[in-house]
Specification:
With about 70 residues, this protein is an all-alpha fold. The protein contains 4 helices and no strands. The protein has one domain.
Amino acid sequence: MDEIKKTSNRKLLGTLCGIGAAVMLLRAFCKYICPVTVFLKPMSYFSVLRIRCDESKKEYPVKALK
């Protein structure tokens, strides 16, 4: 019985560490759980203003050209 508790505690700790790492490192919360994106994504299709980049005026860093 005591051995089962140790094993289940290790599995629980491993699962929580894995979820915590995904949330912190991969921003899983921002991508999949955060409710703000549910409202922002559809509204971006109906926006009044658009921001566009003029590719001809784009400047590249010197390191990127080498």
